[in-house]
């Protein structure tokens, strides 16, 4: 038996959609004879017809993302927003000056190309805080040309 009209009527009264109307399976006969709004109001009051609860927004997907971020995933360049951080700018200034210094030493033939390559890689690996540390490292390890 079709309850399309009754569901539509109940939906108007309950102020929900037709799919959100629940009809008690045991009282389908009572609902099928309803024609007026007053009859439907009585059934709603008795609890034979009611609105299904509204569904919230699932937090499952956000939990999955949070767990992946905890594991170190989802941190690639495509997921980063905003400009370069201050720390990154400080790093670039430091490394660029140290690289320029090692290039200058190579150009003036104070160090050999082999030593230059070692120092260059150490600069890249953050082995030195500043240029004076590079000078001390060269003196301690006697890396200047003889």
Annotate the secondary structure layout.
Blueprint: H1 4-14, E1 21-23, H2 28-32, H3 37-46, E2 49-51, H4 60-70, H5 86-107, H6 113-124, H7 131-140
Antiparallel strand pairs: 1-2
Helix pairs in contact: 1-3, 5-6
The largest β sheet comes out as: 2 strands, antiparallel
Rg over alpha carbons: 38 Å
Q: What oligomeric assembly is this protein in?
A: single chain
* Uncertain stretches: none
CATH class of the largest domain: Mainly Alpha
Tell me what the CATH architecture of the largest domain is. Orthogonal Bundle
Please write the string of helix (H) and strand (E) elements.
Answer: HEHHEHHHH
Shape: rod-shaped
Distance between the termini: 104 Å
Query: How large a portion of the residues is in β-strands, by DSSP E?
Result: under 5%
The total beta strand count reads 2
In CATH terms, what is the fold-level topology of the largest domain? Non-ribosomal Peptide Synthetase Peptidyl Carrier Protein, Chain A
Structural class: mainly alpha
What fraction, in percent, of the residue positions are helical?
55-70%
The average pLDDT value, as a whole number, equals: 94
Number of helices: 7
State the strand order across the main sheet. Answer: 1-2
Query: How many domain units?
Result: 2
